[in-house]
Amino acid sequence: MAAGGSTLSVIGAIVANLLIAVLKFIAAAFTGSSAMLSEGIHSIIDTTNGLLLLLGIKRSKKGANKIHPFGQGKEIYFWSFVVAILIFALGGGVAIYEGVKHLNHPPTHLDTSNIMWNYAVIIGAMIFEGSSLIYAMKQFRKKYPTGFTSALEESKDAASMAIIIEESAAMIGLLIALIGVTLTHFTQNPLYDALSSIAIGILLFSVAGFLAKETQDLLIGESVSNKDLQMIKDILKSYNQLEFFGNIKSMHLGPDEVLLALEVNFKDNVTLHELEKTVADIKKKIRKIDPKFKYIYIESNSISKSDFN
């Protein structure tokens, strides 16, 4: 996804989460629901996460300098990792704490006179969260029109991925809260409200773990996909001037920036002029198919083919 699409998706999520957080806290204040309180905290954390992602997007656009010769595209990966930690530590931790607290000290009397607050807020939140999720998905699918699962694996746009995962988790969390509130209302048993809060916490732990793993790989230095690697090999195979090639190494420097390095061995009858022209042409072809290969380094040497393996 282009940076502009990511930014708009994040801003949309921030606005939606902030409005939803206010409504959830109002509902929690009127009804005393631990599930609604957990959901309110969840929305505040999502709002904060959105602001951190915006910061990451802004900082990732900074150009190269002496300290960062390949630019600062990985900033977005760092801040996405911070977001994952916040979801885990604050979102999941607080939700489980609230649920356990209400299990150990359940209210002696349930006031259901204001129960409609919960239903109104949950339905309203679903509309806001659903709209934000649909918009983020539309932006995401513009660049990745293939199946969603494969597109999620292929995408290296951590900001867009974080928003989609967060909004999806929010929708599931709201459904859990709705079930908990409804069961508590009809059974007059606060156990269901507390259990739904714990379930929301477990959900957030799972989301945080998945997001942390994805951003960790990118932060450390993840290579391109097998599809991209095969594309590079097919281009190299089309040149008769090459005896063989190998040691293809790549690393994502940002959502739309890749560093590519490889070694080639030219045939003995290739002149220096042909060699330079071929190297330039290889770079041009790779970038024409996929412009994210910003930095391409091709080393020509005369070592044996076995040394490439």
Question: What features would you highlight for this structure?
Answer:
Alpha-Beta Plaits; elongated; three-stranded mixed beta sheet; Alpha-lytic protease prodomain-like; 2 domains; mainly alpha
Gap between N and C termini: 35 Å
Task: Please tell me the CATH architecture of the largest domain by its name.
Answer: Up-down Bundle
Q: Order of strands in the sheet with the most strands? A: 1-2-3
Q: In percent, how much strand structure appears in the residues? A: 5-15%
Shape: elongated
- Uncertain parts: none
Number of strands: 3
Please summarize what this structure is.
The chain has 309 residues and is mostly helical. It has helices spanning 3-31, 34-60, 75-104, 115-143, 148-154, 158-187, 191-220, 226-237, 272-289, and strands at residues 242-254, 257-266, 295-300.
What does this structure look like?
There is one protein chain. This protein is mainly alpha-helical and 309 residues long. The protein folds into two domains: 3-220, Alpha-lytic protease prodomain-like; 226-308, Cation efflux protein, cytoplasmic domain (Alpha-Beta Plaits, 2-Layer Sandwich). The protein is built from nine helices and three strands; from the N terminus they run H-H-H-H-H-H-H-H-E-E-H-E. Strands 1-2-3 form a three-stranded mixed beta sheet. A hairpin with a 2-residue loop joins strand 1 (242-254) and strand 2. The longest helix is centred in the N-terminal third of the chain and has 30 residues, at 75-104. It is elongated. The model has no long low-confidence stretch (mean pLDDT 84).
